[in-house]
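Handout, section B. The chain below has 205 residues.
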Amino acid sequence: MLLNFPYYSNYQDLLRMETSALASVKPGEDLIKTAVLGSGPLPMTSLCLLDLLRNSGGSVTVHNVDHNPWAVSKSSELCRKLGYGQEHLSFDCADVFHDDLDLHGFDIVYLCSLVGVSGKQKHDAILSVVKGMGVGALLVLRSAHSLRSLLYPVVELTTDLTCLGLKPLLIVHPCNHIINSVVICQIGPPDKTNLVDPRVQYQPE
């Protein structure tokens, strides 16, 4: 069934690129507990990640989060019908922009491309997510480069984000058929000496 989805192979290639990038920044460590924010009604990121790691002998649980109750209901029903058990997939309805997400229990957090369609929205989404993550966890941000930014918003790591402890580790801009770039960051302790007042208006750098 999933093979009939027009962009299935592109998702597979994107996840191969991302998991290879993750392995390069944390070699020898398994991707065990992962959260996908903005999973949507067809959680391709979660399904391709599960399939990829199963085929390589790895183990992972994925927690899917979306702000739309209909999308959460449909994705949960779809995954059940496809045979993906509750031991590997869970679902929650929450809004990155308005809910205080507790993400401290996750090793990896994905922020999907369309969570925040403008620079300001993307910045606010990252700000909210970073505050809910634990020190040492990895944040995977999907971005775009050059003309591909016409399709997806560009991630900008502004000063206030780095002062919160967001440390960029790796940025990959593919030049082949894969559309998305990937930015991998690690959460560290905040720099309390240089914290930017959250009331200051977002300014892209």
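Note. The beta strands are 33-37, 61-66, 89-93, 108-111, 138-143, 166-172, 181-187. Compare this with the example in section A.
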